[in-house]
Amino acid sequence: MYNVKWYQLLILSMEQTAINKALHYVIDLLDPLNHYQYHNINHTLDVYSRAGYLCDKEFIGEEDKNDILIAALFHDTGFLVQYYQNEEIGAQMARNY
Question: What is the CA radius of gyration of the chain?
Fold first, then answer.
């Protein structure tokens, strides 16, 4: 099970934006992967959070930050299709979103 309190805080702390909608979408999408030890919802939320932190520390502009956050959210979605060589699949899923 993923950390519900952190997830709820993350959702509540964001404005209703494309990022927030993508966050909800990816969390629902990745639910079947939650049994994985590493590539699961907690990992995706951790990557998302760290990407946002680094963007802020490096003064990344809002548009670029949004692109980076979307990439962080979708970076493991290819695991839904196949375990190995899934990166292109995840990238395509993000483009299709």
Answer: 13
